[in-house]
Design brief:
The protein is an alpha/beta fold. The chain is built from 17 helices and 31 strands. Strands 1, 3, 5, 6, 9 and 10 form a 6-stranded mixed beta sheet that branches. The longest helix has about 35 residues. The chain is elongated.
Length: about 700
């Protein structure tokens, strides 16, 4: 007990002396999160002893004038050499700091009301308080922090690329990493119910977006590979805003414009139903439209894939001249044997089309793809992050003793759609001036980039045998309509405009620019138009007729209720009658009845069924159901037979009597010559014949 009391006494003494109160200890104050500065502009590539110049804008709820004693602290961190380190730095996980410079905020220039311009001198071999030391060439993370007392009220993370002592001219071409830009117009092409291309506000907006991109990247000289629906360019040239069409034509001329069908048609679905010829024909037509709009040939060696692809579709693209596919990561990851996210996108990937047949593919870089979709208030910072990632990729290749020029990075959004204008413009401008990066075309990427290998073996990615979607559901009614239209058109006079219009609409049925509902409506409408033409011909109902001769004609009265001449083919059949003239093709005058004279040859007497059919001149298409007729034949009567028999009997009787009479006369002559009264005998041989 004495020991326990002594222990408690010591504790109470400590509490009394040091003022410890376990129940009322104050908790540290939680610092408010720092606001984010907006990078307006910055020099990224900096010489060894150059200067770092930047402009930052403060957020609206933080005014520069309200921070008279604040300091802008510029901190450089150790250089990073890997993509992982670059990504960590972007997300705030920074390496150890290398040097820091403080800039009194009140002393900085003010380019705008709530922005400041900072200028920091760099040094490489010395360390002074007023300069930022970057000792060796490399990629350095930089933080800009606005500190008011001990509080960081606003901040920003960026990068600088410190060049070698020799500057930008010492880069070996073999050490340059090739970079290509790809994009496509992603809005769907749509047709109205009359088959005309819809050019609405959505189309004009996207085409204006593309024209703005082309205008912005034109000064950089960075080439792009672009896919634009030929139907849009053709429609804009004829019905759209002329100024926009001219801007697109001028801007696209300096880039690679990819070949495409004249209207959307899925290559895989076409190949799956054996319609390679249809796809080829449409692509040829699309090339003609593109050449007319841009005054240069379209490129077939590269194909952007924006929908699932199967073996037949890939084979069709390859047969039409494509050497390389651009596959978005989302489609690539689903393919058989795909390595997925671990794929080194600086290599080409071999895609197996069939046994022993392959085609190359490039996968847009995942990290840069995410950056290209960013439509932020600071395109300059997005561009710095993207280029820093590319430089880190190049650095990794060099460290692995690989040749960067045998690699290529494709820059595109995840779905290959048009990126934000300002973002792509800033990225392209920075790529163009950054040593170690070589802007190029996708065609060059396909030629000069090596394939992805693992342990010396080429990575071979498969394709599915089929894809969803059945083009056959549209091709079957299309074929029926083509036959019906050809047959009906043969009834019309030369020069009638309707057959060409029917053919144009029927030709559009396979395209996805028409919805299934539109296709059903168009098919029903075309069937009705064709039927209306054939129904203009009136055919008589069944009737009876009598034939009194072996050869005669029967008039068939047809009526044309239309305003133009119509040509038809009349066909009659019977088991007991002959029709030596065959089918009769006649032209019926408009708004009139017309007798078609049908020659008939009789074979026997009696009543016989006859069938009357009226067809289109081509295609054996009935204008009406067959009409049953009845023929009564009296061409060979009983009285005629009797007269003929009697005549023959008379002739035979006369001939028999004539022969008998002649024989009696000759016998009498021989008897008289042998009579004794004549006095002598006459030799028998002397008698007259």
């Amino acid at each position: 007990m004495t020991t326990r009391r002594a222990a408690w006494s010591v504790v109470l003494l400590v509490v009394a002396v040091f003022g410890v109160s376990f129940g009322s200890a104050p908790s540290p104050a939680t610092a408010a999160p720092a606001l984010r500065l907006t990078l307006v502009s910055q020099e990224f590539n900096i010489a060894a002893d150059g200067s770092l110049r930047f402009v930052v804008q403060f957020p609206d709820d933080l005014q520069v004038d309200g921070l008279p004693n604040a300091t802008l602290v510029v901190t450089a961190y150790r250089a990073v050499n890997t993509r992982a380190a670059v990504i960590d730095a972007q997300q705030g996980t920074l390496p150890r700091s290398a040097d820091t410079v403080d800039l009194p905020l009140a002393q900085l220039q003010r380019p705008a009301a709530n922005s400041v311009l900072g200028l920091v001198q760099l040094e490489s071999s010395t360390r002074t308080p007023g300069a930022l030391q970057l000792a060796v060439p490399g990629l350095y993370p930089i933080t800009l922090e606005v500190r008011d007392g001990n509080d960081v009220v606003a901040e920003l993370i960026t990068f600088v690329n410190r060049l070698s002592d020799a500057g930008a001219d010492d880069t070996n071409p073999a050490d340059e990493l090739r970079v290509a830009v790809a994009m496509r117009a992603s809005s769907s092409v749509r047709l109205d119910n009359f088959g005309a291309v819809v050019v609405d506000d959505e189309v004009i907006s996207e085409m204006t977006h593309l024209a703005d991109i082309l205008d912005l990247i034109a000064p950089t000289g960075v080439p792009a590979t672009i896919s634009v629906p030929p139907a849009w360019l053709a429609a804009l040239a004829t019905n759209g805003p002329t100024e926009l069409a001219d801007r697109l034509a001028g801007g696209l001329f300096n880039h690679d414009l990819l070949s495409a069908p004249r209207l959307p048609l899925d290559a895989s679905q076409a190949a799956d139903v054996g319609e390679q010829a249809l796809y080829t024909s449409w692509q040829r037509d699309g090339d003609d439209l593109l050449a007319a709009a841009v005054s240069k040939p379209a490129l077939r060696t590269v194909t952007l894939i924006d929908s699932p692809l199967d073996q037949g579709g890939a084979a069709l693209h390859r047969d039409l001249g494509s050497r390389m596919l651009v596959l978005p990561a989302a489609l690539y990851d689903q393919l058989p044997n795909s390595p997925g996210v671990v794929t080194d996108t600086s290599h080409l990937v071999a895609i197996e089309v069939s046994d022993g047949v392959q085609i190359d593919a490039t996968i847009p870089d995942r990290q840069v793809s995410a950056l290209l979709t960013t439509e932020s208030a600071s395109p300059a910072l997005t561009a710095i992050f993207a280029v820093a990632d590319l430089l880190a990729t190049r650095r990794e290749l060099i460290d692995l003793e690989e040749i960067p020029s045998r690699h290529g990075i494709t820059l595109a959004t995840p779905d290959l759609s048009l990126p934000p204008t300002a973002t792509l413009g800033a990225v392209a401008a920075l790529i163009e001036i950054t040593p170690g990066l070589q802007p190029t075309t996708l065609d060059e990427i396909g030629v000069r980039t090596s394939r992805l290998t693992v342990a010396g073996e080429t990575v071979l990615v498969g394709l599915p045998t089929t894809v969803e979607g059945a083009l056959s559901t549209r091709l079957a009614p299309q074929a029926e309509l083509e036959d019906e239209a050809a047959a009906t058109s043969s009834m019309l006079p030369v020069g009638d405009a309707r057959p060409a219009d029917w053919a144009r609409l029927i030709d559009l049925l396979p395209t996805s620019a028409l919805t299934d509902t539109q296709v059903a409506t168009m098919i029903a409408g075309l069937h009705q138009q064709l039927l209306d033409v054939r129904n203009l011909v009136g055919i008589p109902p069944g009737f009876r007729f009598t034939l009194t001769g072996r050869r005669t004609t029967v008039p068939i009265k047809l009526h044309n209720a239309g305003d133009i001449p119509l040509t038809v083919r009349v066909h009659m059949t019977s088991s007991k009658l002959l029709f030596p003239g065959g089918d009769q093709t006649v032209t019926l005058p408009p708004q009139a009845f017309f007798n078609v004279e049908i020659p008939i040859e009789v074979r026997s007497n009696g009543r016989f069924p006859v069938t009357l059919e009226v067809f289109t001149p081509v295609g054996d298409l009935h204008l009406a159901p067959p009409v049953p007729l009845t023929a009564r034949v009296n061409a060979i009567s009983g009285l005629g037979n009797l007269v003929t028999g009697a005549f023959l009997l008379v002739v035979m009787t006369w001939w028999v009597r004539h022969v008998r009479k002649k024989r009696r006369r000759r016998a009498a002559q021989r008897s008289s010559l042998r009579h004794p009264v004549n006095g002598s005998e006459t030799p028998a041989g002397s008698l007259p014949d």
